[in-house]
Amino acid sequence: MRLVIIGAGFAGMYAALSAARLRDIQGVSPDELEIALVAPEPTLVVRPRLYEPKPETLTAPLLNVLKSIDVVYVQGSAETIDTKSRMVQIATAMGTRKSLSYDRLVVATGSRLFRPNIPGLAEHGFSVDSLDDALALDKHLHSLPDRPAINGRDTVVVCGGGFTGIEAATEMPARLREILGDKAKPRVIIVDRNNAIAPDMGEGPRPVIEDALRKLGVETRLGAGVASLDESGVTLSNGEHIETETVVWAAGIRAAPLTQQIPAERDNFGRLLVDRDLRVPGADGVFATGDAARAACDDEGNYALMSCQHATRMGAFAGNNAAAELVGVPTKTYHQKGYVTCLDLGEAGALFTTGWDRKIKMVGDVGKKTKREINTVWIYPPRAERAAALASADPERVTDVTGFL
Hints:
Number of helices: 9
Largest sheet: 5 strands, parallel
Structural class: alpha/beta
Shape: globular
Number of strands: 25
Oligomer: single chain
Helix content: 25-40%
Distance between the termini: 41 Å
Strand content: 25-35%
Strand order of the largest sheet: 5-2-1-9-21
Radius of gyration: 22 Å
């Protein structure tokens, strides 16, 4: 029997850990049940941190972790999925292709930044969506001192006033001063079509965010979209032109395109609709998880967000359940009633909220301390020691935030 997991992000990593854990508990050998993880590199990109400086440091190796739990790493990119023949076609780095059959498949392919067809965006826009994107932005920022201090050189426009946009924008003043010198007067502007900053955070936390933006000198242009980009800057839908050499696009994400190959229903974000065990109805033997899945968190109408917090726990349930079907034990219903957010606000600290109604629990330096712990400890892989790695993947305990509620 073979369980194939596509993706080495947070959901894929925990799917592998959890499947191996259940296999171990049931006394099934790796020869009886092979668990294979397919990804271009055996590396976890710590995507929630890519707004930070030094993006080259924001990865964690997975190969030794996978070896310690007897998970086979298959290097390559999954290009096609044939659910009828239960086969995945993989493109290798050498340009060759190979096929991998499966008895159960976990689609943990994550998400991609949504880049609309705005004139000049592809040529002049940066992002913090992937490691390569973050590296390109960082290289660009470090090139600024070699340019004349005119034409908006010290201005950064962040397109998108959601979670990612706010974190990128509030980190930017300190990044620019580090690069340009303490005498520099960086200008950072958030542009968003909505009439309020952080529309998904609700009215409760918004004053904290607005106060942080004021303290940092971050400007906003709300109720206006981006019409076009060129070498001179960005033009907004209201006609305003902002001179800048740095535009960061942070407006929306979609499920990775591979989900479109699964013959099943998807939502507006391209996520596969799944049942409470994270199976994909109509696609026998296929589970979806993380940003690739639209999954109910509870019986109250709340659905998993495209976030690390949900991906880790969903991954653990998907891996457990895919393995459970193969070894003949009951599956576990995915549930994630506890929900917290921790929004980095740069030198203004951080904002920590609990519950879907986002009750404020911590702000400022206290919130920042928790954010640092989340970013540097909680979301990293377990150590490459078999017992510890397997113990980390109990679906009922992964990303259990009830202690904060």
